[in-house]
Amino acid sequence: MESPTGSIETLKALVGSSLGTSGWIEMTQAKFDTFAEITGDADWLHNDPERCAKESPFDRKTIAQGHLLLAHLSHVGESLLPRPEGELLFALNYGYDRVRFIRPVRVGSRIRGRLRLLAIHPRSEPGRHVIETEATLEVEGSEAPHLVAHWLFLVQTAA
Fold it and tell me: What pLDDT, in 10s, does the model give residues 121-139?
């Protein structure tokens, strides 16, 4: 599905609908290691494949950091969220509610995201709205989600 553009009215008509599904992203050990280096989240379950091969309860593999999975929602948003064109001037990440890391994502897995538009809340400032979405990440070959979150965006329209 192509990302919607245009007016807030166009988006209101999509409340309750899926905004689509992103492409697949491979979860590599290099990504886990780079994320650990940047953030300091270097637990052995993420960054020690040799130890995991002996001790990990997750099929003897390393698993992705939870915040790395959240960071991958940026890719999902970029490919599925409304583009700021026409009446929509910009959209900013406004935060998350109800984030749950339901299942681990193992090294070598491929993930993709889905977005569903839950609500549009007008703000007191002219032309501002909060868009509420449900974001999920799933692993290829698994029917259940691995991450679920309510993701909020602040949008500005031409007032």
Answer: 999 998 899 999 999 999 9
pTM comes to 0.87
Beta strands in the chain (DSSP E): 18-21, 25-26, 88-101, 110-122, 128-139, 145-157
Residue among 82, 104, 85 nearest 19 (CA): 82
Per the structure, the complete domain to which residue 18 belongs is given by 8-157
Q: How many domains is the chain built from?
A: 1
The predicted pLDDT at position 105 comes to 98
For residue 152, list its beta bridge partners. Answer: 95, 132
Query: Quick one: DSSP state of residue 71?
Result: H
We report the CATH number of the domain holding residue 30 as 3.10.129.10
CA atoms lying within 13 Å on the CB side of residue 128: 9
- Is 26 domain-assigned? yes
Residue 2 within a domain = no
The three-state secondary structure class of 8 is: helix
